[in-house]
Amino acid sequence: MLEETPLFESGATVEEPIEAPLDSSVHHHTKFYDELYKNAHNVYNLQIENTNVPSCLLKEPLTHTFEKGPIESLHLWSVIQMNNSTNFDEGDTDNNFRVGLINALIDGKFRGGKEDFRIMLDPTPTHARGFFQQFIQDFYVETHRIPHHTILVGNSRPGVGIEGAQSPYTLPLVSRSQISRNLGNARKFGVRVRGDYSLVDYDFGGYSSDTYFREFFPGAEFDGWVNLKPLGKTNGKYGKLVTGGGIVSGKKHSTDYFVAGAYVGYEYKKLWMRAEYANSDGSNGGDGLTNKKRQGWYATIGYHITKKLEAILRYDEFDPDKSISNNNRREYTAGINYYIKGQALKLILNYVFCQNQASPDSHRIIVGTQIAL
Are 368 and 83 in contact (CB under 8 A)? Predict the structure, then answer.
């Protein structure tokens, strides 16, 4: 009979199976998907009710805090606005899809929390300016060392005219009013002081009259605006009432310009109303430098049907040149905003009827969205 060969030689020991080392790439992938799930879960549950201020979906994961160095924290975020406009003009229909805005922002806070800075870049394609003139938008440092005050140095949007100075991320309609986009809505380099008290706030600044870094100091400009808040000490019991006014006075090369404006706004629970008037003897705003005398006004009313759904109506009139008769432009706008996640994620629907005394009337339907990460 053949002798069976033992599986192990006498005196041999059975070794424990050796586990293969965990692949580090598997660990990193698992961590990545865990973070991705966590962030998606946080975004899904994010509740934003205040639509008067900008907001973003990924503030926590895109904010980094430093333990050492002059910078305490950095927050990187971006905003994209897209819309499709259907124009109806004399029986013709024209559809235009466009990316209305692409902004990349870096908000930083210096150690100690008294100073911060902002860099905002805009690669949105435009034919009005060169790429690098458009690319750098906000570029400033500000300090909060004086109670109730902010002192800013750098390139920013001057605070004259309420809607003309308003952040594009909180606009109630796709387009600004005519006085806002023509007489305001421009960034300039300078020094400004802003004060904010319960019954009054103000914004005063001295700037170069250059816009979009076209040339070095072609002249000086002063901007000043004051708001009175008569109900500022009533804790919102009777709503929020703001009345204000201001001026822009400057010179660019040989052209002098002067703009004066006034504003009234009221908010009560779900209802808000705003009206603004401006008159100019020359201007240096969003549509460039001009010596034309112009004026206009608008009135907007909005109502929050629910926390997420808002309805808006606006009447807007503008005279682009007071030396020419019968050339006024009137815009009647009806809009609906659906705030999925506040201003961080919203859907927009606007209908605009343009009534022009010097050209044919037209209609537009605009469907858009805003995403802030």
Answer: yes
- Consecutive H or E run containing 238: none
In the chain, count H helices and then E strands.
3, 17
Query: Which tokens go with 259?
Result: 């703009």
Q: What's this model's pTM, rounded to 2 decimal places?
A: 0.85
Distance of alpha carbon 99 from alpha carbon 370, whole angstroms? 10
**Which residues lie below 8 Å from residue 284, measured CB to CB, with a gap of 6+?**
186, 209, 211, 221, 248, 250, 252, 257, 290
Best CA proximity match to 143, nearest among 119, 112, 121: 112
Alpha-carbon gap, residue 83 to 36, rounded angstroms: 28
Condensed to tens digits (0 to 9), the pLDDT of residues 238-284 reads 999 999 999 999 999 999 999 999 999 999 999 999 999 999 999 99
Amino acid at 313: L
Tens-place pLDDT, residues 199-217 = 999 999 999 999 988 888 9
d(CA 225, CA 307): 32
Q: Give the residues across from 222 on adjacent strands.
A: 206, 249
| Least confident segment among 44-58, 289-303, 318-332 | 44-58
Give, as one character, the DSSP assignment of residue 27: H
Distance CA 100, CA 82 (A): 5
Residue type, 231: L
Bridge partners of 235? none
**Angle at the Cα of 263 from the Cα atoms of 236 and 365, rounded to 5 degrees:** 95
Please report where in the chains the tokens 């339907």 appear, as a residue. 365
**pLDDT > 90: percent of the chain:** 71
Helical H segments across the chain, by residue range: 24-45, 131-135, 178-183
